[in-house]
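Fill in residues.
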């Protein structure tokens, strides 16, 4: 059902004011969430804990910690590091999408973001929220 058309200049101005207030409210929510997220890191570890990847709030890798126990992985170490980076990036993307969903619930960005991840990466990233 379409919105009813305003009949007077006063109604047009009132409608514009309401739109502006709604937009400002959304912007305020996004600013609050950006401040909240701004200092946070995303940390993900391999299933055995031998590799840990840390991303800053801009999703830039700031640390890759490889435990001595990872030496037993030999040729598989590169794959474990890359999978842990993917998991950290997925976790970061999911955090941002959840923040956006709080500001604009009808956008459902989380569903869209998670839909572009493999089920394995998505499930491991979800575990980082627990």
């Amino acid at each position: 059902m379409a919105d009813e058309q305003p009949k007077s200049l006063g109604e047009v101005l009132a409608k514009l004011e309401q739109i502006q207030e709604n937009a400002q409210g959304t912007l305020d929510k996004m600013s609050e969430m950006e401040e909240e997220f701004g200092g946070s890191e995303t940390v993900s570890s391999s299933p055995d804990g031998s590799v840990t990847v840390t991303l800053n709030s801009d999703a830039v890798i700031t640390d890759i910690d490889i435990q001595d126990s990872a030496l037993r992985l030999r040729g598989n170490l590169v794959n474990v590091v890359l999978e842990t980076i993917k998991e950290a990036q997925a976790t970061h993307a999911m955090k941002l999408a959840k923040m956006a969903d709080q500001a604009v619930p009808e956008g459902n960005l989380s569903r869209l973001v998670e839909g572009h991840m493999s089920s394995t990466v998505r499930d491991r990233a979800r575990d980082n929220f627990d």
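The domain at 39-127 is CATH 3.30.1310.10 (Ybab; Chain: A;).
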